[in-house]
Amino acid sequence: MTSDREERPEEASGPLLYSRRARTSDRDSGAVPDMTRQPLTVAVVGATGVVGRTMIQILAEREFPVGELRLMASGRSAGRTVSIEGRSHDIVEATGDAFDGVDIALFSAGGDVSRELAPQAAARGATVIDNSSAWRMEPTIPLVVSQVNPGDLEGHPGIIANPNCSTMQLVPILMAIRDSVGLERVVVDTYQAVSGTGGDAIAEFEGQIRAHVSGQPKQATVYPHPIAFNALPQVDVFLDNGYTKEEWKVVSESRKILHLPELRVSCTAVRVPVFVSHSEAVHVETREPLSPERARQLFAAVDGVVIRDDPATSTYPLASEAAGSDDIFVGRVRHDPSIEDGRGIAFWVVSDNLRKGAATNAVQIAEELIRRGWVKAAAARGAQPYGVERPHGELVREPVGASAEGSA
């Protein structure tokens, strides 16, 4: 079994059944200003997979300035034709030569493909935004959530890493806490939808539901056990320390994105019988006291975060309602009484794992590159490479909302 969002990335087919078109407010938020909309050549690698097809959908929804769209996949999918916005597009085989003339390449074809082809694409002048885990922890590759650390994009070497879906919806909330009262410790339990594993997992889940209704045995090949009517405390393979690879991604990626290499983080990742949207139960120990009321205000001030929190009416984020949205939903905000001096806060976070958890963030990164004039690699712009110490020590974290300009 491989990692979340990387298993059998090209075997999904048919329409996007489980991730609805974004609402108008989601779609318009943060889109590229008209003044910067010069047409670009954009490639989508893994275009026949669940996340790849969602990337194509979001490029159209957000009216990304695509002059030419190149859809790439493995050799077995090459030659297929897909219709997008009334136009037919041929699927071509993903090879190094296929990236000639490409400005931005969105990768979602698994780690092996990314390790092989991302450097080749970058060598041909393309900027790769990669959805796999292949480059995330490389010290010279920025790992970016669009509303958390966009300044890290400035020094990219032609490859940018998109975080894991569970990390993606967590770190904007942690950023708000970090910047206000400080972070000491984070404990997060994730409840992850089957679409994170890909098209085969969705099909197997559906098959197990049908088998249950008809009284037949449930067959499991994607996961170690049937996922229907079950909860599996294993997402990805187990490591020697007893954690799964997915759990350790949340630990290490959160530290890198937040620029807190010593942050204490623990995670338990659980696969649940939900088609789309990951949910997380989060407990945070802060450095200074934080009331639930103040926490809600801080969270609501983060771009793309929506508060759904009214216990009196049983209002809280739901996976079914988050599906199809680009927002991150937060609720159940309350004190954690196990931590003294009012420094404990607990909350519930839900987001569409195919959209903000993967495809939308990739497109938002591309939009940010255009807005700041950073599409080309740092070396081509004379910018300082990411991962190189500044004169006074660590990499400088740019305040959220700060503007930057440069030449593409």
- Number of strand segments: 13
**Which band does the percent of strand residues land in?**
15-25%
Look at the structure and name the CATH superfamily of the largest domain: Dihydrodipicolinate Reductase, domain 2
CATH topology term of the largest domain: Dihydrodipicolinate Reductase, domain 2
Approximate shape: globular
Q: Number of DSSP helices?
A: 10
Query: What is the level-2 CATH architecture name of the largest domain?
Result: 2-Layer Sandwich
Q: Percent of residues in helical segments?
A: 25-40%
The ordered string of helix (H) and strand (E) elements is: HEHEEEEHEEHEHHEEHEHEEHH
Tell me about the largest β-sheet. 7 strands, mixed
| Multimeric state | single chain
Q: Based on helices, strands and strand pairing, what is the structural class? A: alpha/beta
Model regions low in confidence, pLDDT < 50 over at least 5 residues: 5-30, 391-408
Count of distinct structural domains: 2
Kindly provide the radius of gyration, computed on alpha-carbon positions and rounded to a whole number of angstroms. Answer: 21 Å
Give the spatial strand order of the biggest sheet. 3-4-2-1-5-6-7
**Residue-averaged pLDDT:** 89
